[in-house]
Amino acid sequence: MTNLPRTQHILASGLVALVGIWVAWLSFTGEPARAFLFPRIISVVFVALAVWTFGKALLGKTKVGPGLSRIATLNILPGIVVMLIYVFWAAQTLGFYTASTIAFFILLSLYDPAPHGEIRTWVKRVLITAGFLAVMYGLFALLLGVFTPREILF
Amino acid sequence: MEFLLYFGDVFSPFNFMLLLIGTIGGLILGATPGLSPTMAVALLIPFTFKLDATQGLILLGAAYTSTVAGGAVSAILLKIPGAPANIATTLDGHTMAKNGQGARALQLSFISSAIGGVFGVMLLIFLTPVLAQWALAFGPSHLFWLAILGVTVIGSLDSSSVVKGLLSGCIGLWLATIGFDDVMGAQRFIFHSSVSGGINIIPALIGLFAIPQVITMFARGRQQHGAEVIKVEKSPIMESIREVFRRTRALGIGTMTGSFIGLIPGVGGQIAGLVAYDQARKTSREQKKFGTGHSEGVIAAESANNAMVGPSLVPLLTLSIPGSPTAAVLLGGLLIHGIFPGSDLFENYPDVAWTFINSMLIGQILMCIFGLYVAGLAARVAQVPNAVMAAVVLALAVFGSYSVQNSMGDVYIMAALGTGMYFLERFGFSAAPLVLGLILGPIAEANFVQGAMIANATSSMAGYFFTGALNLTLITIVLASIAYSVWMELRQRRYLSKEDTLEREEQPS
Amino acid sequence: MKKLIAAASIALMGLAGAAPAQDNYPERPVMMMVSYGAGGATDFQARIVTMTAGNEDALGMPIAIVNKPGAGGRVGWNWLATQVDADGYTLGAYNVPHFIAQSIEGGVEYSTDSFEPIANWGADPAVFVVGADSQFNSMEDVVNYAKENPGGLTFSGAGLYVGHHIAALQLEKAAGVKLAYIPNNAGGAGAMKAVIAGDVLGGVNNLSDAFRAEKAGNVKILGVFDNERSDFLPDVPTMKEQGYDIDNASVNFRGVMVPKGTPQPIIDKLAEIVPTMFENDRVKGKMEAGGSPMHVMTRDEVIEMWAAREETLKELLSGL
Questions:
Q1: CATH 3.30.300.20 matches C29-124+251-318
Q2: What is the DSSP letter of C238?
Q3: Which site among B48, B49, B183 would you substitute to test the C interface, given the most C Cβ atoms closer than 10 Å to its Cβ?
Q4: CB contact under 8 A, C66 and A147
Q5: What's the predicted TM-score (pTM) here?
Q6: What residues of A are in contact with residue B49 (Cβ under 8 Å)?
Q7: Comparing B208-217, B268-277, B429-438, which segment has the lowest mean pLDDT?
Q8: What share of chain C is helix, strand, coil (3-state, %, to 5)?
Q9: Is residue B503 a part of any domain in this protein?
Q10: Which fold has domain C126-224?
């Protein structure tokens, strides 16, 4: 258990180093060479620093970064799933305001500490969602006329 | 003193009402996480169609002034900077808010914004011709060195590990090269269609700061109210005013750096806040306190980014060249009324020009008064339950990154970068150096390429980049900055390793 | 619950799709993409010429401008050619010769076949500018300097394969000299700053921007890259008058287009209404006040102009 952050640090810095190597490979094979001069310089420094960090992680000398605890991971997982569905699918397919209303309500239900059993808390959640989205819609869509994806409803 | 003649115009009832609307509206839009000042001003342009030129500019001038200060509100309370100019404010401002001193941080930021801002506008009024020369003095080679100067700040910024700070900066520099390269038009690293247009700085800024905040709120899970609520300390306004004037060094450095770096077209506005913060830290007696919620950090950063407002308009008003994205939007607002900014602006349309400048001056003060008035209230944002805040910020982040250029691709970039940043932050990387890399990369590259082309056509590379007073001065500052960082790093290492050994002895492994 | 929402959304979408979309086009606000930044000449003019779109005698729906700047316009046009629904609700502003030259040079996903022109609103010729205190007073001075210092005359422009670059190539060819063209990453405004600041000896820039800079006393305009003199600058001679055989191939034509695949009835409707929007008196007044030369052309004229431009550009760029 005490080694968990260290393993995580090795994985994380290894991943960053891999990205660095990938960038360097692309930079040095990319054409035209003149356009890739800058990426080449950057990628050399990038790889050097990433390898250094990776080495430090291997030796267990990483000083900063608390890593991820099991509880935190379990806590963020549903939120991230909702967020990714909202951003990568719903906002475009359902329209911005519809998708936001749904995502807002789901997130509120997932993370609001009030007990799920009572009707009052559900009413409160619906009211908060409706209130916030109404303010946003009124200010941005009606008053300032900002363009957002519109599919169903508004 | 000509500007005094036109003060009356600002105070006619209708104009003053516009000024109030611009100031308060700008403050609210600027404080909304996810909306940049440029965006906020652009949103107000359609309203000026129905007004005459003077009235339209009063609205825009007041809005420009207060959106910049408004950006500090979300930077302090939510750690989400409204614009690149507010990045430095998050470093100490948000830490203060977490310690329950949100109201004080806001008051400090409004007061120093107003002082810096008034100074900046005064420069605009009295020194425009001199400043125009200064803005023009920066050619490609100088801008290149200026960007390099910005890079030297990266390592020491908001990260307890210099190596990881630099690595974060490198990731940012690389991200900036994605897309078409600006000069040659070659495609680089386009691995998905949504990055084919490159990574736009505003969505990236929103993602890198807002999304980690949202996920951090998720991580707390369904905790009960009592455990989490931050106590918001009351903060007497007089106390904050006294505090600002006690920190004259930070205030002076912020104001001067903001005024003079801020007016360099294309670069200044983005890095003025960070350079001012860095300089204030290096010259402070209480260096160690920076980053832990120290008032000097907020004062330097905020006086710098509002001091920039006045001078940043100098290239626009005298040379008709917009020096920043917001200035470009203002240019559109002027042209639509048939007014050509330029050196004869003050002769042909003195009423328009001076009323515009006066409205910024009065706007600064109104912004400060209004800001101080609501600071205590705004600080209570810290008490909004996690779940609500996370959902609000997420919705605004999606909205803000989409509306920059009506592109879902930008929203994907925002979410992807932000989610990645959360995990990177867990391992000691930080967002501020990454964003700085993202901003400075294109500036350094484009000016290097252009400088090299000019050098090849006229003299030699060495002659172009390494001679001339301004080049040499900038190179000296760059070297001094690097030397200073190295020295600090060595000193800190000795200090850290002692702590490390202590820790290791305590922890049997 | 999820199924229900999905079913409802499908039903709603089905309803929207079933309505005869083309007859009452446009039913909602239309978006127009400008592939240059806010505040630039193209953006500014696009905003003016579309401001009356909401009027009853025009489209009856407003047109919202969306900026997609980057890489000399390539970012925006790539997006328009490949990523938008061709349903008439997304228009684009074109800049000729920019997008045609870029498609000839390659590396982009569009060509003249990817778009359908609607109408042209403006023609902004390129001009040669030098700083107000420059030693050059005519194109002859410039060319003589270039002859004495081959490849040493630095001059700025808005990028590679844009109108300014075409003008630069034409000048090199017509005068038989080698010049050092420095493309600027910050577009026309950046290129103008380089001239005023003395970073470069001269520059090619838009007539509309140069006109403003000259009025402000910052630059001298030495020649116009067009067949005739401009109404805004009656005293500035064309290149031909100064003895260089240069035609109007670099003139920056600005207009409205839609992606290929847009239904023909919608194209026809737009082609009929949009030119009348440009002729509106309020629009004309604002354009004049902003120093922007107008040149309204109908869809058929634009199709011809595109084809002619493509031919001359192919010839000019083949020598590179």
A1: no
A2: B
A3: B183
A4: yes
A5: 0.84
A6: none
A7: B268-277
A8: 40, 20, 35
A9: no
A10: D-Maltodextrin-Binding Protein; domain 2 (3.40.190)
